[in-house]
UniProtKB/TrEMBL annotation, chain A:
The keyword Chaperone does not apply. This is Lipooligosaccharide transport system ATP-binding protein. One of its GO terms (biological process) is response to antibiotic. GO terms for molecular function: ATP binding; ATP hydrolysis activity. Residues 6-236 form the ABC transporter domain. It comes from Microcella alkalica. Coiled coil: none annotated. SUPFAM superfamilies: P-loop containing nucleoside triphosphate hydrolases.
Automatic annotation (TrEMBL), chain B:
This is Transport permease protein. The chain crosses the membrane at residues 40-66, 78-105, 126-152, 158-181, 193-211, 241-264. It is found in: Cell membrane; Membrane. One of its GO terms (biological process) is response to antibiotic. GO terms for cellular component: ATP-binding cassette (ABC) transporter complex. It comes from the Bacteria. GO terms for molecular function: ABC-type transporter activity. Keywords: Antibiotic resistance, Cell membrane, Membrane, Transmembrane, Transmembrane helix, Transport. The lineage of its organism: Bacteria, Bacillati, Actinomycetota, Actinomycetes, Micrococcales.
């Protein structure tokens, strides 16, 4: 692995008695797309804030672009692009002015910022909205503008905290497409998400975090291979018969996961398991065979769903 | 990569400290650009308040009062007595409106400062820039008010010209302290407290009558508050009665400015860079 752009060792953040991040280790290589996957409250945002040099760690070591954020906060921030969880665009400024003003915060010359702003508005598919008020933009447009703004200083690392949370499916796909292009151009992306499809689409490698700790690390495919089966059979018997059916299903598939509303049967061949269930005399109301996802990995690792 | 080589390869044009990037100008330019979308009627209302006081009390009520003795023993017409006080008040009003309501909104709702501090700006850049903008509003009110005073013939001496830098100092002091106090506030109700304190300070700081009407202990309280120092300083300048006490007034504001900047900077750092 080439010299990492981010190195965290035993990275810890405590707020009083509460430990938000509990001694995590990870590296991010240049050009890599790295994800932190976990439920709300797992410590993802806190980790992002420490990497963004706007939050000081309680213990452990952290190096970003070879610098310690405790000593070089502004130097590090000048080379990062930050897309926060909640948009904090400047409501009092119009679309293009948001980019111009933000670029000037980095001390960049006016002409440089103006040139980059036009290119970024093009990239963010907002070239026809340059004079619009921020308030008049849709949620997806605001996010794209926030991403464009984060790129104005040509950052070496782009930090995205839940980039598509709250967006409708179409807006998410547009955003993923833009982020994928950045990734192709070699921008290092670090993102948090609680959507497994997002992690699968965008991340070369990810860590699964829960309660401030890293539960597993690897590429999406490797994690699925390691912690889940190839296929999953989902069967529903109705909520009152669920537990009863689960008892009879013991031994079916490689592993069972009993959820309040359905039973997940992990197996290399879902159809074959469904046949066995029918032979046992059980008749699920609905059944579905699908490929394993990171959701299953998370369920396996923590016993809980990602989105509750 | 060592820290030194990384710093050298970074596109840095000037030395940055954790507190200050030397880029206050970017914060100020943002503020000026943002005022384009401001509702000017609201901005102007703060200017007219002292003008109305001058018209009703100075011109109207002043006809009944005749002349008043200043703290330096000079007899001046009533309108010329209260006009410099109202000038100090207009500088205070502009600075305080901006550094309380507007700053509170940017701090807690629009997340402006949070966004600024994810860039290479430091908390001191943000504090200085925002204080300057509040100062600017106070200065605009005050300059407008000075024009009104000139029209009514209430600037009695050439030293009235020095009242301009004096009101800048006063606006700076209130902007700085105002932003520091606002940065500790959690709710809009708490800003009402500021308004609640400002009203009696406005009425009782030797604004409409000499401080000598009070018993001595009350005088001490008034003299501890910032507006009295501003009123005395400006009154001395517009009436042409210079005194050594003016240095004390100036010193009071310099301390106020320094305290405000230190607390604002530390508070911004504590809020957004912890």
């Amino acid at each position: 692995m080439p010299q990492p752009v981010i190195t965290a060792r035993k990275l810890t953040k405590k707020y009083g008695d509460f430990t938000a991040v509990d001694g995590i280790d990870f590296d991010v290589a240049p050009g890599e797309s790295f994800g932190l996957l976990g439920p709300n409250g797992a410590g993802k945002s806190t980790t992002m804030r420490m990497v963004g040099a706007v939050s000081t760690r309680t213990a452990g070591d952290l190096e970003i672009l070879g610098l310690d954020p405790n000593d070089h906060g502004p130097d590090i921030r000048s080379q990062l692009g930050v897309v926060p969880q909640q948009d904090n665009l400047d409501q009092e400024l119009r679309v293009r002015d948001n980019l111009l003003v933000y670029g000037r915060y980095f001390g960049l010359p006016r002409a440089v910022v103006a040139e980059r702003a036009d290119a970024l508005l093009e990239f963010a598919q907002l070239a026809d909205r340059t004079k619009a008020k921020v308030d008049d933009l849709s949620g997806g447009m605001k996010r794209r503008l926030t991403i464009a703004r984060a790129l104005i200083n040509e950052p070496r690392i782009l930090l995205l905290d839940e980039p598509t949370t709250g967006l409708d499916p179409q807006a998410r796909h547009i955003l993923w497409d833009r982020l994928f292009r950045l990734k192709e151009q070699g921008t290092t992306l670090v993102l948090t998400t609680h959507y497994m499809d997002e992690a699968e689409q965008l991340c070369d490698r990810l860590v699964v975090v829960d309660k401030g700790r890293i539960m597993a690390e690897g590429s999406p495919a490797a994690l699925i291979r390691e912690y889940s089966s190839r296929e999953v059979l989902e069967v529903r018997f109705g909520s009152d018969r669920n537990a009863e059916a689960a008892a009879k299903l013991q031994g079916v598939g490689e592993r069972l996961e009993v959820l309040p509303d359905r039973i997940l049967v992990y197996s290399a061949n879902g159809e074959a398991e469904l046949e066995r269930i029918t032979q046992l005399g059980l008749h699920p109301i609905t059944s579905l065979v699908r490929r394993s996802s990171l959701e299953d990995v998370f369920l396996r690792l923590t016993g809980r769903s990602l989105i509750e | 990569m060592t820290a030194a080589s990384a710093a050298a390869s970074a596109p840095l044009t000037r030395q940055r400290s954790a507190l200050y990037a030397g880029n206050t100008g970017a914060v100020i330019r943002r503020g000026l650009l943002a005022t384009r979308s401001t509702n000017y009627l609201v901005v102007l209302s703060g200017f007219f308040e002292p003008v109305f006081y001058l018209l009703s009390l100075g011109i109207g009520f002043g006809a009944l009062v005749g002349s008043v003795q200043t703290s330096t023993g000079q007899e001046v017409p009533y309108a010329a007595f209260i006009a410099p006080a109202l000038l100090a008040v207009s500088a205070m009003n502009g600075a305080v409106y901006d550094s309380t309501w507007n700053v509170f909104f940017k701090l807690n709702y629009s997340k402006l400062y949070q966004g600024m501090l994810t860039t290479s700006l430091g908390p001191l850049d943000v504090a200085l820039g925002e204080i300057f903008l509040a100062l600017l509003r106070g200065a605009m009110y005050a300059v407008g008010f000075m024009v009104v005073m000139q029209l009514f013939g209430l600037n009695l001496a050439w030293t009235a010209l020095l009242a301009l830098p004096a009101v800048l100092l006063i606006a700076f002091g209130f902007a700085s302290l105002g932003m520091a106090i606002t940065s500790y506030m959690k709710t809009f109700q708490q800003i009402e407290w500021v308004t609640f304190i400002m009203l009696p300070m406005f009425l009782f700081s030797a604004t409409f009558y000499p401080i000598s009407v009070y018993p001595e202990p009350i005088q001490w309280v008034i003299q501890a508050l910032p507006l009295w120092h501003g009123v005395e300083l400006v009154r001395g300048l517009t009436t042409g009665a210079l005194s050594g006490m003016m240095l004390v007034h100036v010193g009071y504001y310099l301390v106020m400015i320094a305290i405000g900047i230190v607390f604002t900077t530390n508070r911004l750092r504590a809020l957004f860079l912890r």
